[in-house]
Design goal:
By secondary structure, the protein is mainly alpha-helical. Helices cover 57% and strands 0% of the residues.
Amino acid sequence: METVEARYDEADRERIVPEPPKRVDAPERKPFERDRARVVHAASFRRLAAKTQVVGPQSDDFVRNRLTHSLEVAQIARDLSRALGTHPDIAETAALAHDLGHPPFGHNGERALNRLAVDCGGFEGNAQTLRLLTRLEAKTPGAGLNLTRATLDACTKYPWPLSEAPVPGGVHSDGMTREGAKFGVYDDDRPAFDWLRAGAPAGRRCVEAQVMDLADDVAYSVHDVEDGTVAGRIDLTRLDRDAVWHTVRSWYAPDVDDAALDAVLERLQSIGSWPRSSYDGTRGSLAALKNLTSDLIGRFCGAVQQATFAASDGPFVRYRADLVIPEDTWTEITVLKGVAAYYVMQADDRVALQERQRELLAELVEAVWKQAPAELDEAFRADWHAAPDDAARLRVVIDQVASLTDASAVDWHARLV
């Protein structure tokens, strides 16, 4: 019987910079296992613990931050990947890495930095992730973490540059309007991108990247509702359908009518663990909510697994098959997003805070630019001196600010502005 390892060839395991064999007394690990370890030990991965997911990590001890979200996405991706016969280490690593490029304040910070980086090609969290993996993280000079081709490709959610990106539309997972186009590589990172995409169909994501993307969707649709319920913002037993459906259409699915959405909610409410009484903060109530979270994740992933197996015999490796998401499953996920969007993301206090965060980042970028290279971290100072023009130097400043956590961005602003 063919092993999952055997489904990947030497080109999939190739690294940008060839590496010598490890010491004979070192623990034996396969290439994709090494990729996972490198992401887990990366500085940018640790910083996710202090970066906003939906609300700031300093606001509540319970809410998820970018790190806990990434760990949950990784667990979902690994389980689904194993069920499909895709390499679980590749899908898990892509999930662990998928938010590395997020700046302070989540998508709100991404939006602010994109406006400020117009003269150097814009800012996009996924392109920043590729930049970190292939350039900024310190493992192999000139190659970042020097991950394998298959893993880097799985980390590439949008496999195209800005010049080929679709017209932006909709909203991000935390409710921010998508102003900038979604793309996966800056122009000066094209050599690494072209290397990892060698032999790949133009604009198509490998199945491992599709698994990562679905795991992300499932995780934040379910967990944002959980966080909102515990925070007292959402009561799943008393939803304002008219308001939520308006939000669903405004943000995610403009063509879905009330009758279809009512049917979706009734299906979700028929799940045995759907709450019949309001959340009250007791352990029993929290346990019931956790059971609902588990049931929803299993429901969505199970439906996708069945549909994918029905559509293809596989193997579900790289470009030999695609993930299939049933329309009913997609709509159920969308309804949960709409619930969180209406009750949490549109709250007046959050909107006002986001405006101040964007102002802070704009002032900080200006201050760092004026005081560079003296105020840059040593690694970015070297990048500044190596930059050939002002556009490249602006990119260094953006890299520096994007690397900061929410708290360190506030501290830098207090010190420099």
